[in-house]
């Protein structure tokens, strides 16, 4: 009875809005699904299979109820690259393994760590993929029959070699599509009836009419088989599995980044909150399922998701309706694809690629930081000029280097001479002649890790000529300490002991103290009182005074 009431409540409340949103999203997503499949080097129907299955599964199981998943520009380049290297079996297996990775990311609750990947790396990847996608569409835009190339320079060379075969009709269709997509919404924003029409569908209809009327000989999509995909088993060949692992991880990483970015966009548009780990599990389930139904790797698509939200989606059912409508089109309207010119699809993908190249992010990064600019440009150029797997590997390495450099720059070690001598600890020290002449205090700000050692060494060397028997290290602002930091701290304590200097550690954070107590040698140094530990620096100063008075 409760289920029946919920169904009735849904039918009265959200059903109409979800159905409308699903319908419009499906209409807009139809040419994109076909275009992304062709750009990926696979059959057009594989893009539709991906759009249908991915959207349905992720809508049902993901952590963002508004996200629409399917083939996307971000996946196109890596899919094409993997296809060139390992064939269709390789890309299907890579997609499955990527799904396994994504489910593992979600179960291990790694979703939150994606936000730590620096923007220059993400922007460099995204813009590089956009540039690759744009270059890859040049042959279709000019009506040239050229096999998809893995490298951008190969595509450009092939276009230049076939420049005499450029079709004026294809070029006009492509340019017209681009202009319609870019300017139609603003030109008819005040005309209610027309502005609700998706410009991609208007461009599609006009392109098909041109083909039918002119009987022109330009490349067309061709017949798409009507009917459901056949279930197929994958080739779990161990050698192939090992070979495609890097590509699978890259697919998983790119899919994870784009899906979670899309979820953040959803939150901003709807004032909702997504579950990042559940979203990764949902995306992983979809990618593990797709290869068995001839689907290529998919991810959440920001453009289609935004349309879904703008058209009034209320629940997850909007994404499921979108899949059912695409399935209906596949079953009954597949033959229409025989008249879709590839030049039209090129125009659609060129607009998508232009939006992926975020010029504003480039300008902002260039103005803010030279280091960020270098990371962005290197990642961008590697994505365009090499293969995406290598670009991802170098990009992640650069992100680690960037983090290391920034953490090192955060480190600051100061002596008490930098502070006001009339207040706080300095007031205590300067009020007592013994403390003033015999105590040296260092305040460590930032993580005490391997990157901080150079800063620590320099500061210690600055004061080598100052020989004082009591050295206090204030550690209130040390959030963590690593193995290198521990070794350097112990070395400093041993060196001070040989010079008859006593070391005091004060205001240690609980997590840092836990790490220190786990080290047997440091624990022994504490027990033998070669190093003293106090909750506060004032307590340490009192101890030094009492010890001197005694």
UniProtKB/TrEMBL annotation:
One of its GO terms (biological process) is transmembrane transport. It is found in: Membrane. Keywords: Membrane, Transmembrane, Transmembrane helix. It is a multi-pass membrane protein. The lineage of its organism: Archaea, Methanobacteriati, Methanobacteriota, Stenosarchaea group, Methanomicrobia. CDD domains: STAS_SulP_like_sulfate_transporter. GO terms for cellular component: membrane. This is SulP family inorganic anion transporter. Residues 437-544 form the STAS domain. Gene3D superfamilies: STAS domain (3.30.750.24). Signal peptide: none annotated. The chain crosses the membrane at residues 20-39, 46-66, 86-108, 120-146, 166-188, 200-220, 240-266, 324-354, 374-405.
């Amino acid at each position: 009875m409760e289920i029946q009431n919920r169904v009735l409540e849904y039918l009265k409340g959200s059903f109409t809005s979800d159905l409308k949103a699903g319908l419009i999203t499906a209409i807009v997503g139809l040419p994109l699904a076909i275009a992304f499949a062709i750009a990926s080097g696979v059959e057009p129907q594989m893009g539709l299979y991906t759009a249908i299955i991915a959207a349905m599964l992720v809508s049902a199981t993901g952590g963002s109820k508004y996200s629409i998943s399917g083939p996307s520009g971000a996946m196109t380049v890596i899919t094409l690259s993997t296809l060139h290297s390992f064939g269709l079996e390789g890309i299907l297996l890579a997609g499955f393994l990527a799904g396994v990775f994504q489910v593992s990311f979600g179960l291990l609750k790694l979703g939150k760590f994606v936000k730590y990947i620096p923007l220059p790396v993400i922007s460099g990847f995204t813009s590089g993929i956009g540039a690759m996608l744009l270059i890859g569409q040049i042959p279709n835009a000019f009506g040239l029959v050229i096999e998809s190339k893995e490298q951008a320079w190969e595509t450009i060379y092939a276009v230049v070699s076939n420049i005499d075969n450029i079709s004026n009709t294809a070029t006009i269709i492509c340019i017209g599509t681009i202009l319609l997509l870019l300017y139609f919404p603003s030109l008819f924003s005040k005309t209610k009836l027309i502005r609700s029409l998706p410009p991609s569908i208007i461009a599609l209809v006009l392109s098909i009419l041109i083909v039918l009327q002119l009987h022109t000989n330009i490349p067309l999509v061709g017949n798409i088989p009507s009917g459901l995909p056949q279930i197929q088993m994958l080739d779990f060949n161990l050698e192939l599995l090992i070979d495609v692992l890097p590509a699978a991880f890259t697919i998983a990483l790119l899919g994870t980044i784009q899906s979670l970015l899309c979820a953040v966009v959803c939150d901003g548009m709807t004032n909702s909150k997504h579950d990042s780990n559940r979203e990764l599990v949902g995306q992983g389930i979809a990618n593990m399922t797709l290869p068995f139904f001839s689907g290529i790797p998919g991810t959440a698509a920001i453009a289609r998701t935004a349309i879904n939200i703008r058209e009034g989606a209320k629940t997850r059912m909007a994404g499921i309706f979108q899949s059912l409508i695409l399935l209906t089109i596949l079953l009954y309207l597949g033959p229409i694809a025989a008249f879709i010119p590839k030049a039209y699809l090129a125009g659609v993908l060129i607009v998508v690629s232009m939006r992926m190249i975020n010029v504003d992010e480039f300008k902002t990064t260039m103005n803010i930081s030279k280091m960020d600019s270098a990371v962005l440009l290197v990642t961008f150029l590697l994505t365009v000029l090499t293969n995406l797997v290598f670009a991802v590997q170098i990009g992640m390495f650069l992100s680690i280097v960037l983090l290391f450099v920034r953490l090192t720059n955060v480190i600051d070690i100061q002596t008490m001479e930098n502070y006001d001598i009339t207040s706080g600890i300095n007031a205590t020290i300067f009020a007592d002649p013994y403390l003033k002449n015999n105590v040296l205090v260092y305040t460590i700000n930032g993580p005490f890790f391997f990157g901080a050692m150079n800063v620590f060494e320099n500061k210690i060397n600055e004061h080598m000529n100052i020989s004082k028997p009591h050295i206090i290290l204030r550690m209130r602002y040390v959030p963590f300490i690593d193995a290198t930091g521990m070794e350097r701290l112990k070395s400093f304590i041993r060196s001070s002991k040989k010079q008859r200097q006593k070391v005091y550690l004060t205001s240690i954070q609980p997590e840092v103290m836990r790490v220190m107590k786990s080290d047997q040698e440091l624990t022994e140094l504490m027990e033998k009182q070669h190093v003293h530990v106090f909750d506060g620096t004032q307590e340490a100063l009192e101890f030094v005074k009492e010890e001197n008075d005694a």
